[in-house]
UniProtKB/TrEMBL annotation:
Protein name: Cytochrome c-552/DMSO reductase-like haem-binding domain-containing protein
Membrane spanning residue stretches: 226-247
Domain Cytochrome c-552/DMSO reductase-like haem-binding: 1-197
Entry annotated with the keyword Transport: yes
Keyword Membrane: yes
Any single Pfam family the record assigns to this protein: EB_dh
Cleaved signal peptide residues: none
UniProt GO MF annotations: metal ion binding
InterPro entries: Cyt-c552/DMSO_Rdtase_haem-bd (IPR019020)
Organism: Urochloa decumbens
Keywords: Electron transport, Heme, Iron, Membrane, Metal-binding, Transmembrane, Transmembrane helix, Transport
């Protein structure tokens, strides 16, 4: 994902660029009002706002080193929520703008199995140090340098969510999403509603299978065919051998002389 603008070097999150992705979860969730549940602040519940859930990934780059990966980590995931104490790339769900919570946190419930399933990083085209940065290098570039922001995000198609807090993706099945970008103007802090939107309604995210998968046709298992043919050959030989042995036994049965056991014992007593 690329956003063309000037670089903004800062440590305060609200004075730094920020980006968010929103995905429809509930069938009744709307693009407007972040899900569209009509409950007021403090009155939203999973029952009263059922069907209005949206899944949100929000990345504020103020404390994030460019080129480093942020998001889900063992410490915050062990706490059972979608937070990120290192770079503020958080996993959030919402019913409307006033009812937003980290995954695993809510007005009346806390799902200890929740976690941050997102990972992401950022970069700016004006940054030329490709050997990497550390926190002490901040600010990482010149203020208001023209260029393009680059954002990379990843997440599994499916998650362990049990409370309609994560969107579940399927290859070949479209999903509704939205993109928002916050950028400080004249060094002033931005507010929650002061963002640019990529569209005025849902965008369609369509995850297609790779070309390799679409045209992949597994070769016939020649080793399995050879093994099957060899086993069949052995079976035929065994059957033929059994028939031959049975035939020889039955043919020689009339000429075979058997001595009764009583005669053998009588002969031994005479001697």
């Amino acid at each position: 994902m690329m956003v063309s603008t000037s670089s903004s070097c800062c440590r305060e999150s609200s004075k730094c660029p920020s980006i968010a992705l929103m995905f429809q979860v509930g069938d009744n969730a709307t693009y407007y009002n972040m899900g569209g549940c009509k409950d007021l602040r403090g009155s939203c519940t999973s029952k009263s706002c059922r069907g209005h859930e949206v899944d949100i990934m929000h990345f504020e780059i103020g404390n994030a080193i460019p080129g480093r990966l942020y998001g889900g980590n063992h410490i915050d995931n062990a706490a059972g929520n979608g937070g990120d104490r290192f770079g503020h790339l958080v996993d959030v769900y919402a019913w409307n703008p006033h009812c937003r919570y980290l995954d695993g946190v809510g007005p009346k419930e806390n799902n200890s199995n929740a976690q941050n399933d997102w990972h992401g990083a950022w970069w700016h085209s004006s940054l030329t140090v490709h050997s990497g940065f550390v926190d002490d290098d901040n600010p990482y570039g010149k203020q208001d340098e023209k260029g393009t922001y680059y954002f990379e995000f990843s997440r599994p198609l499916r998650t362990m969510d049990r409370f309609q807090q994560d969107a579940q993706f399927t290859i070949g099945q479209p999903s509704n999403m939205a993109v928002a970008f916050w950028y400080p103007t004249d060094g002033k802090e931005w507010g929650d509603s002061e963002h640019y939107s990529a569209s005025c309604n849902w965008l369609i995210l369509d995850i297609q299978p790779s070309l390799e998968a679409a045209y992949y046709h597994p070769a016939p298992n020649r080793s399995w065919d050879a093994a099957t043919a060899f086993a069949l050959l052995l079976s035929v030989v065994a059957i033929c051998l059994s028939i031959f042995v049975g035939y020889r036994v039955s043919k020689n049965r009339s000429t075979t002389q058997f001595t009764p056991l009583e005669q053998i014992q009588f002969a031994e007593e005479r001697h």
